[in-house]
């Protein structure tokens, strides 16, 4: 019997409580959102059992509080919520961790907070984008878990297991570096690819008619919302710039090899890139 | 009642004849491949009814001949096959068209050839990658169709309609320019993204554990084969370099805006990229 309060009933928060209800981990879900249409939509979709704008009451009544708001809002929301908790457990679902962990490092209730990052999502947003089983077979990263109380970590592990998630434990700074490689850079390249095609191909009907499945797959993330992603890039700016510079070097090298018509070197580059098959099925 | 000969029983050729058999367009399929294990595999998977290495007999017995080999092999194979045909129809399924059309421009049997490009595929290759319905709701581009005989074009249109494909008519040079934007560049960015991550993230277990659905989606094409793609980049080099240079400019601009911490401009770039939503659902 667990009452869960979710602050932010969008794609990630909504999908998370929906999955928790379906797997019997959450028995009652209270939604908090600054947007009343989000709350109505979330209730209509049975993501939440009740909606409120009274954050402190919703925190007081919960066993677990999930903070699923954009990263910039999270930096002020997390200490505010920790000020309110007694023995409840608080988790975030943010895509960067170091700045957030720094904000609460000396907070007297720091141990009630478990920093987690579910490695799943889609390019859509809002409660209407929430789907069950979004997290099955995906990874849940727990960051700096040694700074959280053992019972709080155990509760989060219980939720992860119930949802069929793999658990990975990382330091916050280490997490931010890795996600720059395997998540954030993909969004940058996808945004840039969309900008490229929109710039070069002025005939939108042609894009629609000719877009291959491959193109759709690489450009899909370019539909992602700036409200979610700008704060992520801001908070993980140094790591993202580092991997982006490496990506620019790799692209420039492929360009030069093609310009020089060195097809043997070009073939070698593709063979090297093919190694990703070993890792991703 | 149509006998179809397919030269090259890989992903595209195999999927095409499989779909044609399932939709009753092809009644008998002869497979020709230089690799006997491909022919055995294709027969075992019922992609073809018989396999042979005797190209001229297979051409003579067919109503429709599909050339589904890499682009470099196609440049010599197409005139060779046109030398053999009487009133049969010959199509290719290649990803570039201008060089190929130039090769047969003055061939006496030019009018029996219809240059087509089905805008669909996956990152896998070989007969084991062939799947039915790969082409449903996808686009079939017919290039320079005015240089083909009316009955040959009509036969290809009949196949496209039976497979549930959208038909688009383009000039060969125009086709090559458009596909550089909406297909070839995606493969370059995906190869470069894989190289970036393999270079920066030396811990392969971490890539496996943390790879988000978004990362997998943008890097999927990096599994594509060099045998197929190097000839495409070679034959469409100028268009690919042109769009690649634009992509490098867009990426560099995103990088500079992020380095300068100009988040208002960064937000604007994402909003512009989001316009791709209008075109691709």
Automatic annotation (TrEMBL), chains A, B:
<protein>
    <submittedName>
        <fullName>Prephenate dehydrogenase</fullName>
        <ecNumber>1.3.1.12</ecNumber>
    </submittedName>
</protein>
<dbReference type="Pfam" id="PF02153">
    <property type="entry name" value="PDH_N"/>
</dbReference>
<dbReference type="GO" id="GO:0070403">
    <property type="term" value="F:NAD+ binding"/>
</dbReference>
<dbReference type="Pfam" id="PF20463">
    <property type="entry name" value="PDH_C"/>
</dbReference>
<dbReference type="GO" id="GO:0008977">
    <property type="term" value="F:prephenate dehydrogenase (NAD+) activity"/>
</dbReference>
<dbReference type="GO" id="GO:0004665">
    <property type="term" value="F:prephenate dehydrogenase (NADP+) activity"/>
</dbReference>
<dbReference type="GO" id="GO:0006571">
    <property type="term" value="P:tyrosine biosynthetic process"/>
</dbReference>
<feature type="domain" description="Prephenate/arogenate dehydrogenase">
    <location>
        <begin position="2"/>
        <end position="281"/>
    </location>
</feature>
<dbReference type="InterPro" id="IPR050812">
    <property type="entry name" value="Preph/Arog_dehydrog"/>
</dbReference>
<dbReference type="InterPro" id="IPR003099">
    <property type="entry name" value="Prephen_DH"/>
</dbReference>
<dbReference type="InterPro" id="IPR046826">
    <property type="entry name" value="PDH_N"/>
</dbReference>
<dbReference type="InterPro" id="IPR046825">
    <property type="entry name" value="PDH_C"/>
</dbReference>
<dbReference type="InterPro" id="IPR008927">
    <property type="entry name" value="6-PGluconate_DH-like_C_sf"/>
</dbReference>
<keyword id="KW-0560">Oxidoreductase</keyword>
<dbReference type="InterPro" id="IPR036291">
    <property type="entry name" value="NAD(P)-bd_dom_sf"/>
</dbReference>
